[in-house]
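Shapes recur. One chain:

:::
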Amino acid sequence: MIRALYTASTGMVAQQLNIDVISNNMANVNTLAYKKSRAEFQDLLYQSLRTPGGVAAAGLQQPTGMQLGHGVRPSAIKKDFSMGDFKQTNNPLDMTIEGDGFFQILMPDGTISYSRAGAFNKDSEGNMVTSDGFPLEPAISIPTDATSVIIGVDGTVSVYTPGTTTATEVGTIELANFVNPTGLESLGRSLYRPTQASGDPTTGTPGLDGLGTIAQGFLEMTNVNIVEEMVDLITAQRAYELNSKAIQAADDLLTVAANLRR
């Protein structure tokens, strides 16, 4: 009965973490390019009261054993990098990646972070930057007198200026990809940092070497499905309640045992 108390408590802790993950997904249902997370669990070690396949009396083999589990523990919180829906904005500096890849963002400390969010703006010098002011890498500067900006599917950025009839190329957007994107470290602000688990980034031209293409005037929305999250939330809530019932049942049994009289 004491074992049941500890076992059920691990279930409550695990479902609390599950609800935390689901809550974060639901909170970011309108966040650009947010990738939903999924909590994964594994069972704890088992106490073998009788080993499967052991030898019983008269040399007979036991077809089954007796192994008692000790609950559950979280094993990972995994990011799902499947593509979200696209939203048309008609803003010339808004971009989305159709396929695999990440935009490269230069951070204040000189390191490179990676993002799927393509909502870019111009700073006071015409550089393409994120909403936090972090510049795109490699740097692309839009002339102040540009009348229109054209971004090709291959990442080429061209502008029209007054008095010209042909577009002038001002830079090219490069994308990066990883062998294991789920190994990236989330930094918030829709930014990710590579780790040993993700591997080193490989950069290239959009549309080549497995990288996605660029679509101008669109933004990638979150891949959170609110209906699925609601179902998962209800399931986690009921699992939490069931584990609490198991603790109450074990406590009732202990109460009976404590009240025994000769």
In short: The longest helix spans residues 226-258. The longest strand covers residues 72-79. Residues 2-52+63-79+224-258 form one domain. The CA atoms of residues 50 and 66 lie 5 Å apart.
